[in-house]
Design brief:
Length: 161
């Protein structure tokens, strides 16, 4: 296992973006009349998609590339730690939704500042620790896990005679 830096994470994000766009197109084609009256469905799909980091320790893009969110020392990350990381990473989005719902300029400013800080923090994946700021705050890192072959069953020697 090894920590991954910026480029594998960027590739995973591109794969994730493609999945989300395909999901939105399918949703629009299948149920456009229903969705047209309920545009929040697209936001709900995005939230469910992003929350896969909590439940599966990675988005589909990360899972395809065999990347997993783990503790900084490589041990599996507990669910509460993955929730913590999720809230750091997507806190700006939460504040943006809140500002849209209540029309608060203060929440919008917090959302912009938060998202800017997380965006800048992504470049810290180029450092030796290969941790973004949200990883550092949650004490996590993204690791490439090796594909392990199934364990071999012990062979019994054949009896002759």
């Amino acid at each position: 296992m090894s920590r991954v830096g910026f480029w594998p994470r960027l590739l995973a994000a591109i794969i994730d973006a493609a999945f989300v766009v395909i999901l939105w197109i399918i949703t629009a084609l299948v149920a456009w009349a229903w969705v047209r009256e309920r545009p929040w469905v697209f936001v709900a799909e995005l939230i469910v998609y992003a929350s896969s980091e909590i439940f599966f320790a990675g988005t589909p893009g990360k899972l395809i590339l065999r990347l997993r969110i783990r503790r900084f020392d490589g041990a599996p990350a507990e669910r509460w730690r993955r929730i913590d990381r999720f809230l750091y990473k997507y806190g700006g989005v939460v504040y943006a939704l809140l500002s849209g719902l209540i029309g608060s300029t203060g929440a919008e400013l917090v959302a912009r500042f938060w998202s800017t800080m997380i965006g800048i923090g992504c470049f810290y994946a180029f450092t030796a620790s290969r941790q973004t700021w949200n990883d550092r705050w949650a004490h996590t890192a993204v690791w490439r896990v090796r594909r392990t072959p199934p364990p071999l069953e012990p062979q019994r020697p054949e009896r002759i005679g």
